[in-house]
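The freezer alarm interrupted the setup, so I double-checked each line after restarting. Inputs confirmed:
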Amino acid sequence: MSYLTPPLGRLVGAFQKLPGIGPKSAQRLAFHILKQPQSTVEELAQALLDAKAQIRFCSICSNLSAQDPCELCTHPQRSKATICIVADSRDVLALEKTHEYTGSYHVLQGLISPMDGIGPEQLKIRELVQRLREHLQADGQIDEIIFALSPSIEGEATTLYLSKLLRPMQIRMSRIAYGLPMGGDLEFADEVTLARAMEGRQEI
Amino acid sequence: MWLQFIELNQFRNYKSLKLELGDARQIALVGFNAQGKSNFLESLYLLAFASSFRTASLTEIVQWGSTIATVEGNFGYKHNVPLSLKFGIYKNGKRQAIVNQEHQKRLSNYIGHIKLVCFTPKDLMMLTGQPSDRRQFIDLLLTQSYPRYYSLLQNYQRLIKQRNALLKNLKKRTGSQLAQELDELDSWDAQISQLGAQIIKRRQVVLTDLSRLLHGTHASVSLMAEKIELIYRSNLGEDISQMGLSDLEQSLAKQLKAKKTSDILHGHTSVGPHRDDLSFVLNGHELKFFGSQGQIRTVALALKIAEMKYLSDLFNEPPILLLDDVFSELDIKRQQALIEHIQQPGIQTFLTTTHLEGPVQRFFNQGSKILHVSGGSIFQ
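Predicted 3D structure, all chains:
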């Protein structure tokens, strides 16, 4: 690789550690930064530091938030009696975009995957059990727990594990449907998705 | 189905090859050793299955100094619209899979378009070799027969990897942590039983059909009154031949539970279709232990012909046949038997040999193509 003056080399190296950024993109980003006015660069640096310093896991739902409890957990119109379990904060964003769901969330921050050293201990499962217990003890009602985990073997294992763990609490549990994307053409759906949709067919 | 046109780029010793085959059904690739005959067959195999019958590390296919090796083919069908496929291997191991100009993200949507039967000297060893060789044989046939099988198998293999990783953790655990992880094990076992049962069922159904066909093809090749059976050997410890899907699932779940303690001790999963085997029984005796060399060759040949018939019947169209230097392994009588079976109209056969002689030479008549292979080039 060609010579880079040390501070620039460090910047390129730092970018390269980011997901999806290869050596060429890292160089492009670094040179772009150098061309920016001082204020823009300071803003970026400050934004990075602030995000890291201020964002924590919400003590109720384990979503990422600068305030604790988070905006969703303190929202007066959101139902506390329905909890949707997701793997990642990005999944909350995706579900929120639908404007369909008015309950609350619980973010596991991952899925069970022994190959990657992730077991129930590494996930926000203890927090979930604690949350449900406290809610029930305070005479609160839980109407439903909705599992919205990805349809992978790890998503399935996590769903099975949690549903078994929570069964003694006698709460209604459900999972989102698998199937065809809306607006898609049946003939263009791949075989696996189509077979899954066939399995999950509903009476009309 | 048949191959009409093929193009190779930076593929082993082929720098660039374009070959128009039209409607030719018998294609002989003739040449000295190490000129590229098997490489050509390998490219077709790669196009069909995104894997090789010669190597597990696909990157060695990429020509030295190049970034990508590609193979592209156009296929004609009797009962279907034409198909074009392209498969590429990058030097860094990444793959490119294209069906009718459309990039496929999942290999499960790529594999299975081409029906292909490949016969190499290695297949003679499959009968007596490792159980994994025989599982690979049946899995490849199923991948071509049922579009969903490949992803079923992939998911199952991933489940086993996850379970094995957990088993290794469990060995080190005690107390409450152990109890928690044992619960976790149950959630993997539930999925393994479910997918495992589907795999066993599929394999069993295919083997029943194949065994029936083998019975007929073996009689025509061996010319003797011998009885051949093909049996699925599951390690569930009970007779599974009459079991339905839910019985199989229960039986596998029961066995996973029973073997739990020893599985934890050994750190791997000892029961399930990933440990199953096929066995060939000739006149009531296990071929692997009691078969003579001649008997083994006869069964191997009859099995390939049965495989061809199976795919022909299922899709109402014969598969493409690759014969990599197998005639030299067979005596005249068996060579003739093989030719009789592949002479049926519609079957496209690719055959490699160092020289055409005997029954094989007579097989090549008008409408067939004899191609001379030399140093990574093909001459008509």
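Quick read of the result. The longest helix of chain B spans residues 175-222.
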